[in-house]
């Protein structure tokens, strides 16, 4: 059974870089056809796709965040990571990692991790 | 970018009744539409994909229909565990994937 688990600091200072890692267990991140994505949800708000990565390293970003986002993959550790630079209070959210096919829904999700941006 | 809208924002339903939720896309997404259920403090759970195919383990009381720009999620005979927020999402044209703002189904 595939499991995804987010990890990283729960508090980040304004203007600094938010860094999160998603560890995949019960399956290989190198599985063909699957992409690995990050989605966030601001308190009391809806869902916003941040970006996705294929195990080969190909990345796809939401243009609204593209200038500040980097997603990377470490196949040896079965992990992928998110970096979001120059954060502000507007980046306070629950961050989820999830799996999807190229043209498919997000079928497996991590439990989510709350990141608060505050000094 | 494809904009997803959902209606109503809130739906009050009595247990045992049915609920009909709507989702509209700003342009055609064919049948590449998913529905998710989210309960407080939990991650979204995939209910429906391909507009009408139930995900693994999803009860038959959940059904999806539609194609193009108009979609419907129907929950028949609502159970207590069905009171939650429901989101639609298109995966036909990405990036970006886009979600609707959600419909909250609460107890009448």
Protein architecture, described:
The complex is a heterodimer of chains A (119) and B (108). By secondary structure, chain A is mainly β. Chain A has no helices and eleven strands. In chain A, the strands form two sheets. In chain A, strands 2, 4, 5, 6, 9, 10 and 11 form a seven-stranded mixed sheet that branches. A four-stranded antiparallel sheet of chain A has the order 1-3-8-7, with no helix packed on it. Chain A is globular, with a radius of gyration of 13 Å. The model of chain A has no long low-confidence stretch (mean pLDDT 96). Chain B has 108 residues and is mainly beta. Chain B contains no helices and eleven strands. Chain B has strands spanning 4-7, 10-13, 19-25, 33-38, 45-49, 53-54, 62-67, 70-75, 85-90, 98-99, 103-107. Chain B starts with a strand and ends with a strand. Classes of the chains: A mainly beta (119), B mainly beta (108). At the A-B interface, strand 5, strand 9 and strand 10 of A face strand 5 and strand 10 of B.
The biggest sheet of chain A, with number of strands, parallel, antiparallel or mixed sense and barrel status, is: 7 strands, mixed
Low-pLDDT parts of chain B are none
Structural class of chain B: mainly beta
Report the order of strands and helices of chain A.
EEEEEEEEEEE
Q: How much helical structure, as a percent, in the residues of chain A?
A: under 10%
Largest sheet of chain B: 7 strands, mixed
Strand/helix succession of chain B: EEEEEEEEEEE
C-alpha Rg of chain A, in Å? 13 Å
What is the C-alpha radius of gyration of chain B, as a whole number of Å? Answer: 13 Å
What is the 3D shape of chain B? Answer: globular
What's the β-strand tally of chain B? 11
> In what range is the share of β-strand residues of chain B?
over 45%
């Amino acid at each position: 059974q595939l499991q995804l688990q987010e990890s990283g600091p729960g508090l980040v200072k304004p203007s600094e870089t938010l860094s999160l890692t998603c560890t995949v267990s019960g399956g290989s991140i190198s599985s063909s056809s699957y992409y690995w994505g990050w989605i966030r949800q601001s308190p009391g708000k809806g869902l916003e796709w941040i970006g996705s990565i294929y195990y080969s390293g190909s990345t796809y970003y939401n243009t609204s965040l593209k200038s500040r986002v980097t997603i990377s993959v470490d196949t040896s550790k079965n992990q992928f990571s998110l970096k979001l630079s120059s954060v502000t209070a507007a980046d306070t959210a629950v961050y989820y990692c999830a799996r999807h096919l190229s043209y498919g829904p997000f079928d497996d999700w991590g439990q989510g991790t709350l990141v608060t941006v505050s000094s | 970018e494809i904009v997803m809208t959902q209606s109503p924002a809130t739906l009050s339903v009595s247990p045992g009744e049915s609920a009909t939720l709507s989702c509209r896309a700003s342009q055609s997404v064919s049948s590449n539409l998913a529905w998710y259920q989210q309960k407080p403090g939990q991650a979204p759970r995939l209910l429906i994909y391909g507009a009408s195919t139930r995900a693994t383990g999803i009860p038959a009381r959940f059904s999806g229909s539609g194609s193009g720009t108009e979609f419907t999620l129907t929950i028949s005979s609502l159970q207590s565990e069905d009171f939650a927020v429901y989101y639609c999402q298109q995966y036909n044209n990405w990036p970006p994937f886009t979600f609707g703002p959600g419909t909250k189904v609460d107890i009448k």
